[in-house]
Write a structure and sequence with these properties.
- The chain has one domain: Rossmann fold (3-Layer(aba) Sandwich), CATH 3.40.50.300.
- It contains 13 helices and 6 strands.
- The radius of gyration is 19 Å and the shape is globular.
Length: 308
């Protein structure tokens, strides 16, 4: 009897769209459009949007979008503190349970690779054991080399880069996982099935979008927002301020970048990050890719509805 019921149970798994792709590609707009079409709510998977008050370089949804659609896992962590992937997965799981309990459609959207894959594949990151050999190797490196190694895997790791213990632990998790996160041992199968949707475009188109966004962020007051965070007591080495956009704004505040150089430096950092994101998710054969031109929404809606 149990064997006969197994296929039915698998069929009844909730399908949740999980939107991935490089930074600046339009994931947030697609998530909003899907939420409007599917009576959904959005679970953001971003290591920096969890922090309060810092909105510009974290690319949080607009006030209009937030009035019309409910968002989860944003704006709830003090920016002077740290927040990690294990905390994210725990909170996002609760959010998905809450959304489905009210008969709404959850939609996961974000660009932090570790957060997206750990949530979608059901990995419990706190269960990753220490790696003594890797720790010895990392402890032999100077702080700068450790930071560079971490940032080469995830430019927005969501940890204090000045804290060697946190940097080493982040590297343990990321290097144990690999892209995608299929080799982690501690796993609890989610009560839902991830329908992975990737947005893509030519590298030239992505670069142009990132350059335009960087200029817009500076024009919107990125430097003032960064200075306000410092004035409010957020340390310059806080995790959120080490990410792309704020790191360059801090360099400008220190006199290391001119106001004209600032958006160019941001765009360059974002280009590197976008390429790493593409390499990460291109390895995952479960992702169904859609080009942003022409409008991908009709095809994505057909894909989502056809698999439900």
């Amino acid at each position: 009897m149990a064997g006969a019921d197994a296929p039915l149970q698998k069929k009844l798994l909730i399908q949740i769209p999980v939107i991935v792709g490089p930074t600046g590609i339009g994931k947030s707009q697609l998530a909003f459009d899907l939420a409007m079409e599917l009576d959904g709510e959005i679970v953001v998977a971003d290591s920096r949007q969890v922090y309060q008050r810092l909105d510009i370089a974290t690319n949080k949804p607009s006030p209009d979008h937030r009035r019309r659609v409910r968002y989860h896992m944003i704006d709830f962590v003090d920016p002077a503190t740290n927040f990690n992937a294990a905390q994210y997965v725990e909170g996002a799981r609760r959010a998905i349970e809450d959304i489905t309990s009210r008969g709404k459609q959850p939609i996961v959207e974000g660009g932090t690779m570790l957060y997206v894959d750990a949530l979608s594949d059901g990995f419990t990151l706190t269960g990753i054991p220490p790696n003594p050999e890797l720790r010895v190797e990392l402890e032999r490196l100077d702080a700068g080399a450790r930071q560079e190694r971490l940032l080469s895997i995830d430019p927005d790791p969501g940890v204090d880069l000045q804290n060697p213990v946190r940097v080493i632990r982040a590297l343990e998790i990321l290097e144990a996982a690999g892209p995608p996160l299929r080799r982690l041992r501690t796993r609890t199968q989610p009560a839902w099935s991830a329908l992975r949707i990737g947005l893509t475009a030519s590298l030239g188109a992505i670069d142009r979008r990132l350059e335009a966004r960087s200029r817009q962020q500076v024009a919107r007051g990125l430097v003032a927002e960064t200075q306000a965070a410092l004035d409010a007591g957020v340390p310059a080495d806080a995790a959120v301020l080490t990410g792309i956009g704020y790191a360059e704004a801090l360099a400008h505040i220190r006199g290391e970048l001119t106001v004209d150089e600032l958006p160019l430096a941001m765009a360059q950092s974002n280009r590197r990050y976008a390429r790493r994101q593409l390499r990460w998710w291109r390895r995952d054969e479960r992702v169904r890719w859609f080009d942003i031109e022409p409008d991908p929404l009709p095809g994505i809606l057909s894909y989502v509805r056809g698999t439900s």
